[in-house]
Write a structure and sequence with these properties.
Radius of gyration: 16 Å
CATH architecture: 3-Layer(aba) Sandwich
CATH superfamily: Alpha/Beta hydrolase fold, catalytic domain
Largest sheet: 8 strands, mixed
Number of helices: 11
Shape: globular
Structural class: alpha/beta
Helix content: 40-55%
Strand content: 15-25%
Strand order of the largest sheet: 1-2-4-3-5-6-7-8
Distance between the termini: 29 Å
Length: about 260
C-alpha cells in the first residue's frame, strides 16, 4: 500500500474548545498512548505506531497548535507551558485521564512541561530537544531556512538528516511527507517554544517514571546530550537505539514500538 493510502487510513480529526481547534489522529482501544511530534513534523510522523500499537492501545497522535488542522496560538512567542495547556485541553475533550505520554524531539519539551504542570504517571522521551532557555539566536538559522526554502525546500534539504544513512526508503518518504505539510505560522511559533524552553529545568521538578531514548546515529540530538537530559530527572533511565537516527519512530518502528510497549 502506498504511503499516502496508509496515512489516509488514520484521517485527521479535531475538537473545538473555547473557539480553538485542536487536531489529532487516533486508532485502537485500550490503555492510552498520547504521542507528541517534533518541530518539522506532525501527527502523521507516528504512522507506524498508529498502525502497529492500535491493536493493544488507544493511540492518540496530536497536531500541536499551528500544525495540521490545529489553530495556531494568538501569541507571537509561545512557551512550552502554552503547548502543555493545549495538550491538557485536548486530552480533557477526549475524556482521557490515564495515559502514557510519548514524545519525540521538540515534543519532549512540551511533554516535560506537561509533566511538571499536570504530573502524568509515565513519560517516554525519544531524542529530546533540550531547549535554549531564552536564547533566540539559536533558532535564527531555522527561521532563515524556512523563509528561503519553504516547506518543500525543507523537505529536500533537512529530511535525510533526520535519519541514519541506512534508513529504509519509506522512512525518508514519511519524514519528507511531514516536512512538506509544515505551516510557517506553526513552525515559527514552535521555534519560539524551542528557544524559550529548558527541559532540564522542568526535569528536576518531575518525580514520575521517565525513560529517555536516543538513536546511536542521531546527529540532531546526539546521545551525549540525551543522556545528560535523562540524568536531570530524579527517576529516569536511558536507552540507546542502535543504528537509528533522530526520527527513530519512522526509521526503526519495530524497535521503537517494542520500547513503547515495554514502557507502557
Amino acid at each position: 500500500m502506498a504511503l499516502e493510502e496508509r496515512i489516509a487510513a488514520f484521517p485527521s480529526q479535531s475538537v473545538v474548545v473555547g473557539g480553538k481547534r485542536l487536531a489529532f489522529r487516533e486508532a485502537g482501544q485500550g490503555p492510552v498512548l498520547a504521542l507528541l511530534h517534533g518541530i518539522g513534523s506532525g501527527s502523521a510522523s507516528w504512522l507506524f505506531q498508529l498502525e502497529a500499537l492500535s491493536a493493544r492501545y488507544r493511540v492518540i497522535a496530536w497536531d500541536a497548535p499551528g500544525y495540521g488542522e490545529s489553530d495556531a496560538f494568538l501569541l507571537d512567542k509561545p512557551v512550552p507551558e502554552d503547548y502543555a495547556r493545549a495538550l491538557s485541553v485536548l486530552l480533557g475533550a477526549l475524556q482521557v485521564k490515564s495515559f502514557t505520554l510519548v514524545a519525540q524531539s521538540l515534543g519532549c519539551l512540551v511533554a516535560a512541561s506537561y509533566a511538571r504542570m499536570f504530573a502524568p504517571g509515565k513519560l517516554l522521551l525519544i531524542s529530546p530537544a533540550g531547549g535554549y532557555a531564552g536564547d533566540y539566536s539559536k533558532v535564527a538559522d531555522r527561521l532563515r531556512q524556512l523563509d528561503e526554502l519553504g516547506p518543500d525546500g525543507l523537505a529536500e534539504q533537512r529530511a535525510a538528516g533526520m535519519l541514519s544513512p541506512d534508513a529504509p526508503a519509506v522512512a525518508l518518504e514519511l519524514v519528507r511527507w511531514n516536512y512538506r505539510r509544515i505551516r510557517p505560522d506553526g513552525y515559527r511559533q514552535a521555534a519560539c517554544c524551542l528557544a524559550n524552553g529548558s527541559i532540564r529545568q522542568d526535569a528536576a521538578r518531575f518525580s514520575g517514571t521517565v525513560l529517555v531514548a536516543c538513536g546511536s546515529a542521531d546527529t540532531v540530538t546526539p546521545e551525549a546530550g540525551c543522556r545528560d537530559i535523562a540524568a536531570a530527572f530524579p527517576h529516569a533511565e536511558y536507552r540507546s537505539l542502535p543504528g537509528l537516527g533522530h526520527a527513530s519512530q519512522a526509521e526503526g518502528p519495530q524497535l521503537v514500538n517494542r520500547l513503547i510497549q515495554e514502557f507502557a
